[in-house]
Amino acid sequence: MVPILGLLRGDTSADRVVPPTGFTARLTVFTAAAMAFLAVFALALSLATARLADRWGTALAQGATIRISAPAEQRAAQTEAVLRILRETPGVASARALGEDEQRALLAPWFGPDLPVETLPIPQLVEVVEDGRGFDAQGVRLRLRAEAPGAVLDDHSRWRRPLVRAADRLNLLGLGALTLIVLTMAAMITLAAGAALAANRQVMAVLRLVGARDTYIARAFVRRFTLRAGLGAAVGTALSMGAVAALPRMDAAGSFLTGLGFSGAGWLLPLLIPPLAALIAFWATRYAAMKALKEIP
């Protein structure tokens, strides 16, 4: 970043070497703006999936369910035995048997709200909430097998692992997309700088003849393309942050995709994109300029 700041404060007279208008100017600004716009969404996706993985892992890890499948005449006794076992188990914060209305609500998405729960052989469910320490699931299973044979403990591990794994892979996908966007931006700016250098090849040769040093000639291109990329990225970042802010909140719509966005200090992360774009343009243009100057006899 220090070379960029020094470049921006440097001599601006060399800027006349680079045409102030033309397709290279528009291409650089448009590319930087488009890539910054996409980069903000890729960053939002990565952060959202990281939060999702943490939320899924925490929520499922702190809860468990016990399913009691017993004859009707034994169900109440086994339910009471299960609750007693859980009250005596270290690491269990609370445990309660779900009522008929709650079980009906759980089954409503599949069977409708009018399901006659009381007339069907539906297992009794017991909700278990862990404290920070957690409980010994294997020990609870052994006690249930001895004192409540119809009870089965589900600690959600078989559901938790695939969900967290899927969220982690989405996080990697977002980071991969962000990396691809950065590489694409560098390639496009290098191509645009190469086109501008090729168009001004004769001017560069004349400047050499009159004594201009290669660093002076390169500085004009580097400065102009760095400013263009920074400006384009700033515009693209601002537009993308506005679009992300306009998305509905997850608590309003209840969907993962509506939770795509930033929270708290995360809103500061997109502000790093314009300086990053300027840094990419600086080194990409510098590489292209020095390579072009070496090819001029």
From TrEMBL:
Report how it sits in the membrane.
Answer: Multi-pass membrane protein
* Keywords (A to Z) from UniProt: Cell cycle, Cell division, Cell membrane, Membrane, Transmembrane, Transmembrane helix
- Give the GO terms filed under biological process for this record: cell division
Locations listed in the record: Cell membrane
InterPro entries per UniProt: ABC3_permease_C, FtsX
Question: Transmembrane region positions?
Answer: 27-48, 170-197, 229-247, 267-289
Which positions fall inside the ABC3 transporter permease C-terminal domain? 177-289
> What are the annotated GO cellular component locations?
cell division site; plasma membrane
Tell whether Transmembrane is among the UniProt keywords. yes
PANTHER family listed in its UniProt record: CELL DIVISION PROTEIN FTSX
Q: What is this protein called?
A: Cell division transport system permease protein
- Organism, by scientific name, is Palleronia pelagia
Provide the organism lineage as a comma list: Bacteria, Pseudomonadati, Pseudomonadota, Alphaproteobacteria, Rhodobacterales
